[in-house]
Amino acid sequence: MVKYLTVSLVINLFLFSLYSYWVGSALRNAFSDVEKFLPPLKVTVKVIKIREERNRKENPTKVSSRTPTPPKPSLLEDLLPMLEREYQTLFRKIVTKAKASMTKGGKVKLSLNRAVVYTPPLKPLKVNYPPSPLEVKVTVLPDGRVINAVLLKRSGNPKVDRAVLNFVRNLKFEPINEPIIQEIYILFRFKF
């Protein structure tokens, strides 16, 4: 057994040294041509001096009686106020507050400053205890669609939270002709 291991070790050392010699010579031959193809980079900098000549025509006796013309206003100065006005109207946002009350049977009474065109039906909810007031932030586009509804204050009952959030997302408001995105904070109170 020991004889076998020593013979195996000697043969492996011989093969490894032969292989490493072959790889080393191959790498040396592969990179020997690099110096021929890539000469060192030489940079020469020439400093050129330019003489500045000023044409001086001094004539102290002549004085112009004409007033200098004011510079013409640039196009950018003319367009900047107009663009600011236009973008202010595009990104104008109005934040309002509203109240809503829910009674037994799923009846919702909304008091908003913007007319509601469509109120989705709300199924009556069965709860063991009356939920606390719930606040929702609603983002409404100028065409009356609700694009975002976020719960700000939870009622304590996930079933009620989900039902109110779905109700608010399906509301349709009256369209307006101005480019205004309206954020409405609605406080829902539950009456039993």
UniProtKB/TrEMBL annotation:
Gene3D superfamilies: 3.30.1150.10. Signal peptide: none annotated. InterPro entries: TonB/TolA_C, TonB_C. GO terms for cellular component: membrane. It comes from the Bacteria. One of its GO terms (biological process) is transmembrane transport. Residues 135-191 form the TonB C-terminal domain. It is found in: Membrane. Keywords: Membrane, Transmembrane, Transmembrane helix. It is a single-pass membrane protein. This is Energy transducer TonB. It comes from Aquifex aeolicus.
